[in-house]
Amino acid sequence: MFDRYQAGEQAILVHLDFPDDDTREDIQEFEMLVDSAGITALNTITGKRNTPHPKYFVGTGKVQEVADAVRMFDANIVLFNHSLAPSQEKNIEALCQCRVVDRTTLILDIFAQRARTHEGKLQVELAQLRHMSTRLIRGWTHLERQKGGIGLRGPGETQLETDRRLLRARMVNIRKRLEKVEKQRQQGRRARTRAEIPTISLVGYTNAGKSTLFNKITQAGVYAADQLFATLDPTLRKIEVDDVGRVILADTVGFIRHLPHDLVAAFKATLTETREAELLLHIIDIADERRSENIEQVEEVLNEIEAGDVPQLLICNKIDRLDDVEPRIDRDDQGLPIRVWLSAQQGIGIELLFQALAERLGKQIIKHLLCLPPSAGKLRGQLYQLNCITDEHYDEQGNCLLGIKLPVREWNQLLKQDEAEIEHFIQT
């Protein structure tokens, strides 16, 4: 849309330490983001400031150091581990003579690389356009000139205004397409609600091991890698849980510190699976020294997407990286599971997770002894399909005596067929 220096793969990284928690970022996480984007870091420049410099974000001496490093290492992109104002990006670019990318743009770029589904690509494009719309003003001066010349004299719209209009039109188009996708998702959720199938959503900090656990439980073959944002598009699979029956398990995008608001807004439709879940499995990399901070960041995003009140089961993952830690279930004062310790990579403690899920979701279980006459063979077949028969034998009259155990919702579905007749078969 306007002239820019060509982005490259050889980068100078810039990171500043601030005393304020709201602006402080983690340099190790920044390096992982750069690696996830497929960019080679040539040099890292660090410094300390109390507040950002209004013109260059870093001080005048530090920005000159960055420019010197660009020329010394022949870099063609500068990456900042902070969110920059459009004017700051423009000023630094003019001095360094190469493209400058802030943390938000870097994360958006990683999301653009990872998106695979039609919906995911639309959501990322919408987030990028929202971000870009605030940065059009820093394009070069030709954007502010009106079109002129023979055949080009129009109503006096500048190139900048034209770009803004095209941008708005594209954003409106994408929103309409996303609304259609969201309606399809709502239909799927309504169908699951009618069938009373509970949904469990995996949430957690990026690279905590959500997709690895998802694959271990469902054998789904979802892409999992030791990098940030390996998963972007949500994946749903059915699993069977004792005393509960069928359950929908949803794998979602990982969260990160200061997740760009444009991304949160764009992915709200996808994150609806999280907001409307019966239970959240909050995956924690228990071997990460920053796990407490990561938990806080996840809680922050959950509150932002209005999912902070959904019940959670904490999953302490990667115990194989710790010494003398065995798989176990931690319980609250009422004996309810609140934390499961396991290793998804090694497959250790997975059975404990299913036990905890059964206890958290399978609170309402029906147990009955049914006396079915030979004419009730259809009902007997349905009970076998539900896999709920615990005992079976016959009396002297040829009646089939069945012991059954199943969730309340499946029992209620059976009663809808012929409540009076089925209740007549129950032995007291």
Main β-sheet description? 7 strands, mixed
Spans of at least 5 consecutive residues whose pLDDT stays below 50 are 1-7, 138-154
In CATH terms, what is the fold-level topology of the largest domain? Rossmann fold
N/C terminus separation: 77 Å
Helix and strand sequence: EHEHEHEHHHEHEEHHEHEEEHEHEEHE
* Gyration radius over CA: 28 Å
Classified by CATH, the class of the largest domain is Alpha Beta
Q: How many H/I helices?
A: 13
Helix content: 25-40%
Structural class: alpha/beta
Strand count: 15
Strand order of the main beta sheet, please? 6-7-5-8-9-11-10
Kindly give the count of domains. 3
Binding site for Mg(2+): 211, 231
Subunit structure: Monomer. Associates with the 50S ribosomal subunit.
Cofactor: Mg(2+)
Coiled coil: 164-191
What can you see in these coordinates?
The chain folds into 3 domains: 92 residues, Rossmann fold (3-Layer(aba) Sandwich); 167 residues, P-loop containing nucleotide triphosphate hydrolases (Rossmann fold), CATH 3.40.50; 63 residues, Alpha-Beta Plaits (2-Layer Sandwich), CATH 3.30.70. It has 13 helices and 15 strands. The strands form 3 sheets. Strands 6-7-5-8-9-11-10 form a 7-stranded mixed β-sheet, sandwiched between helices. A hairpin with a 5-residue loop joins strand 10 and strand 11. The protein starts with 9 loop residues before the first strand and ends with a strand.
